[in-house]
Amino acid sequence: MLVLFISVGLLYAFASVKNNVRKISKTNISFLGENSLFITHEAVSKLLIQNQGGLKNKPKETLDLNTLEKTLNSNPMIKSAEVYVAVNGTLNAEIEQKRPVARVSTNASYYIDDEGKYMPLSSNYTARVPLVTGYVEKNNLKNVFEIAKKVEADAFLKQHVVEIHQSVNGAIALKLRQCKFTVNLGSLKLLDKKINNLKAFYKKSLKEKTLDKYSKVNLQFDNQVVCTKT
């Protein structure tokens, strides 16, 4: 029984040593979720290579997978990354990109991602998301992120809202696709009620074919839609 135990232990140790000295045969990079790439396979590959000074034929035990993951996760386009080596020697990197919900277009241009954080623009792909204009601070995106999330989650708003404008005092206004008027929301208090009022106004005006007769639609007053004609 003791001899058998020692034999099994030796075989396991031998297999472990053999696995550790196995060299990296190739690199496989995969993107999770959406197909639109803000960061390319080539860019991820460069990050991996620059960090380790070349990967092919490198012994597995010399790789620091945690450092590779930290390098990828530090990229502003990447939400999360997992790096591991398969039994066949393939180095796998699974990438989840950040997902933009709005694009700031002021004196600076950048995205706001789905966690309300800064995300740089990509030269590889441009997302079709509402523009954010007006007074916007990169370290204070709470208000515009809240309304951007609402726009993304609501079918009506997602179809019609093309611009979110924030004034110096934090008041929010919207621009709708193919409409001349500005929708003044003011603060984001009672936001759901304001959005419901906007939908009711839009549906009624569309039916009456009067959408092009207004320059402003004010939703700041409780249970009222105050319109200014052109």
Give structural notes.
The protein is α/β, with parallel strands linked by helices and 230 residues long. The protein is 33% helix and 28% strand. A nine-stranded mixed β-sheet has the order 6-5-4-7-8-9-10-11-12. A hairpin with a 5-residue loop joins strand 9 and strand 10 (182-186). The protein is elongated and about 75 Å long. The protein starts with a helix and ends with a strand. Mean pLDDT is 86; it is low at 2-20.
Brief sketch in words of this structure:
With 230 residues, the protein is α/β, with parallel strands linked by helices. It contains six helices and twelve strands.
What would you report as the Rg, rounded to the nearest angstrom?
26 Å
Overall form: elongated
Count of alpha/pi helices? 6
How many distinct beta strands? 12
The computed structural class is alpha/beta
Q: Ends: how far apart?
A: 95 Å
Tell me the series of helices and strands, N- to C-terminal. Answer: HEHHEEEEEEHHEEEHEE
Strand order of the main beta sheet, please?
6-5-4-7-8-9-10-11-12
Approximately how much beta-strand content do the residues carry?
25-35%
pLDDT < 50 stretches: 2-20
Note the main attributes of this structure.
single chain; 230 residues; alpha/beta; 9-stranded mixed beta sheet; 3-stranded mixed beta sheet; 6 helices; 12 strands; 33% helix; 28% strand; disordered N terminus
